[in-house]
Amino acid sequence: METVLSGIRSTGQLHLGNYYGALKNFVKMQHDARCYFFIADYHSLTTHPDPSALHGNVRNALAEYLAAGLDPNVATIYVQSDVPQVAELSLLLSMHAYVGELERTVSFKDKIRKHPENVNAGLLTYPVLMAADILMHRATRVPVGKDQEQHLEMTRKFARRFNSIYGVDYFPESLPYNFGNDLVKVPGLDGSGKMGKSEGNGIYLVDSDKEISKKVMKAVSDGGPTEPHQVMADPIQNLFSIMSIVSTPDTYSYFMDKYNSCEIRYGDMKKQIAADMISVISPIRERIVEIKSNDKYINEVVADGASKARESANATIKDVREIMGIKSF
Ligand code: TRP
Q1: Theoretical Cys-Cys bridge with 247: which of 187, 259, 276, 295, CB 3.0 to 4.6 Å?
Q2: Which atom of ligand 1 is nearest the CA belonging to 8?
Q3: Domain 209-289 classified CATH 2.40.10.10?
């Protein structure tokens, strides 16, 4: 069975693009593999050192992932800093990570360019800590976006190097987890290609019904088709794509027919999209609120996840120490 590990940023709220793009797949995947999901709060310290916000961010992220369907009875869900063994593994791995290769990491070069005033050592060793997260559970699969592929490549390099230096076959190859055909791309409603936080066009899982309607009604469209089966402009294609995601196939065909016969009214279409989107998001939003008000539940989930994650972490640390020659007296 595959061991899958996914690291979750503790900053930023989940939008529909995250939900359809990854989360729904995570929810399915948790039943088919040994899954670890963790909130990467140590990592966030490399760029967001705000003590008054950190805990709340972690709590929000947890509540959102749980509300969307990650099941603590099925997967191991934990907070990175609850498993400080990862810091030891990161230290041990750093002995075989070369400064040159760390300096050449795209994300690092990016960070120095954008924040020349804060080029800290944590940023430089970010990929080592990430490798420790992954190798800690000897994960064989890691779902990552494009921006994290290089980090995953470095994880494999560190693992191979460790195996070869010590003449062991200990760390596995951690491969990307590709959802293939299940990967749903949610377009932006501002006429742009993709929904994203940095694009500023997100519809969030915590948005109220009113906010959702407002955002959808403002979606970019055009003057409408003037001849039957007219080629669609990108923003209209986006509207149809999003409709294919949130609405029923019947609804979709209804509006597609209207488009093809030049009878479409985008206002009606948007109203329909908003209503269908609300019926997806509002139950999740309600669960987020419910979970966030239930400290006892959150505490139990976190404690249970930490204890399961530590068990796996302790086993790895014990082996790695032994392989590297650290023996107890
Ligand atoms: N760097 C990842 C991101 O920014 C988060 C992360 C930290 C991660 N450790 C990980 C992802 C381990 C996958 C595996 O999104």
Answers
A1: 276
A2: 5
A3: no
